[in-house]
Model the fold of this input.
Amino acid sequence: MDSKTVLVFDDDPDLLNIFNFLFEESGWQVHSFQNCDNVVEMAIQYRPLLILMDNWIPSIGGIRATQLLKANEEVKNIPVIYISANNDGKALSEQAGADCFIAKPFDLDELLALADVLVNKS
Done:
């Protein structure tokens, strides 16, 4: 069986470690990045089943990065979970065109359950 691949874009190294551990323990292959400068190229290269996108990520930010993904024919159907500690994170997520939103701090089991739902519905 092909391994499930997730791309994680977050500039917080501690959070990246948590995401890596969490998803790898659940059988995912994780590629993480501390900036979103080549977000579309990375999605095309790795063909992930899922993308996690932080709101405050260098250099263009999560909203613009998600919009670029959703505007690209090759990768627009990859589900994006938008992650933010902002009070208006849900609105930012909708502005970005993300498939769903999860607030920081998040419940790890909830995040994995959401990942499975998004991946299995496609």
About this structure: Residues 108-121 form the longest helix (14 residues). The longest strand covers residues 4-9. The chain has a mean pLDDT of 94. Helices lie at 13-25, 39-46, 62-71, 89-96, 108-121.
